[in-house]
């Protein structure tokens, strides 16, 4: 029972990171109707920037801000420089260019920083609190949960309550009409990419200190799991991403704890296959209209 | 068989004999590289037909190769007897295992589009090491494939690597030739119809789901045979050899060669085998620290940049260059070009 509670609490923090990364995929999907396969590599590039700044200044928070800013810049640059130039009616060229970008970024990072794992230290202790003799969340887990909640709340406010959010949604759903109504659609798409990659960078920044260390492939598994989460939740649905993220986080934690760490990717693959076969649009997707 | 098919078979036979003749001019290491190229060619040919003709992008063809490799290793080891019997049984095992996995993926693919299928196959590649350690596949050490020595009649004439290159060329030819016939025949026409307009093809009595699943199987079997070729040449199958990097290289080869083109697949396979080797040879000459960082990475960087440049600027790939050269002389059997553009 103690073990179960511990695994559940560990899964909760893991799920928050997954949900955050899945949310970043949902934002790109809603803004541009593409799945960004380079999201993990771009996020890791931003984490390297954060790592360099933290190493230079000694401040975790300066690094965090740098990571978010460089993620946003990278997202905007990729959208302006590459994705905009591709045909929109066919998803294939976008996926292939994203794969090329993954190869360029990962190889470039390995050349620039070396292929070894660089340890990143969390700003808070990873020693769990003991409540009633049971180890539960650590201060760092709590920080992850709070950061994820703040960012998700902020994004929900942005999209749901502000004029900018309305323009972002309008540009994504009806580009032609919004253009006629004076929304600068290309700028909104760029902004969507910037927001998404910054969110992904935050998720990777939160994840890396709990893993083996920073290396160019640090977020590969995160991307695959988050893709599964986004698909299970429905690529259109932020709420779906949140719920599915927590669910998959708990699943991974329980499978790792009771079976083995090696079985976790298989469990996610099985779940993804099952959902795609039974409900290809995802569990929380509202409507059938999907063109890509 | 129609005259067209005889022509294809004859051309395949001629190319096979030419390739086997070429092995006499190569040293053992070059022959080993030739066997690797043949393995990649089989897999890339399958992938390029799948992507170019049906628009289904698979990032997981390395896993299908691995499935073929494991199938080959286990059946060829299990069947006792003369080497030819064991080889044939192994190839049969490779076809069965990769075909079965391809069918499962194809059934899923029939319901999925673009990014969903790519994501599912990506998850499959990432899960391969887990599968190898959870299922009885020998974990990271992988499985041992039987060793095929040079037959006595030939042992005075050729070296071991050359013999393996012969086997590789013959298996690759057997894997790719049916694919070429499929592509230019009725099945290829159906695949193009489904790619162009699913509704219209359904109205014409073509079931898109069936065509997509069938295309996946037809693409998985050559990939599995490619895996069997690699198992012959290296005498082992390890999950590490079929990782994400290798899987993406197959996509690079298909795109750089030109999606849908078998000749392009050959060009792409030569490139993805020889370029990393050539780059690493040059890098080995640079000072140690920088050289260590560039080793293996520089080639990936170049391929990534090439992939982006190719998709943005020249979606037809190398195959279009061939077409342009060929356009100078008239051809009776003009095949419709298939590119990433629709």
From TrEMBL, chain A:
Name of the protein: Branched-chain amino acid transport system permease protein
Molecular function, one GO term: transmembrane transporter activity
CDD domains from the UniProt entry: TM_PBP1_LivH_like (cd06582)
CC annotations in GO: plasma membrane
InterPro entries named in the record: ABC_transp_permease, BCAA_transport_permease
Membrane topology type: Multi-pass membrane protein
Coiled coil: none
Intracellular or extracellular location(s): Cell membrane
Organism: Glycomyces harbinensis
Membrane-crossing segments per the record: 6-27, 34-53, 59-78, 90-113, 142-160, 188-208, 266-286
Sequence similarity: Belongs to the binding-protein-dependent transport system permease family. LivHM subfamily.
Primary residence: membrane
UniProt entry keywords in alphabetical sequence: Amino-acid transport, Cell membrane, Membrane, Transmembrane, Transmembrane helix, Transport
GO biological process, one term: amino acid transport
From TrEMBL, chain B:
Keyword Membrane: yes
Keywords associated with the record: Cell membrane, Membrane, Transmembrane, Transmembrane helix
GO MF entries: branched-chain amino acid transmembrane transporter activity
Cellular component aspect of the GO annotation: plasma membrane
Subcellular location: Cell membrane
TM stretches of this protein: 35-55, 62-79, 85-109, 116-139, 163-182, 248-278, 298-322
Primary residence: membrane
Domain of life: Bacteria
Membrane topology annotation: Multi-pass membrane protein
Signal peptide: none
Name under which the protein is recorded: Branched-chain amino acid transport system permease protein
Organism: Glycomyces harbinensis
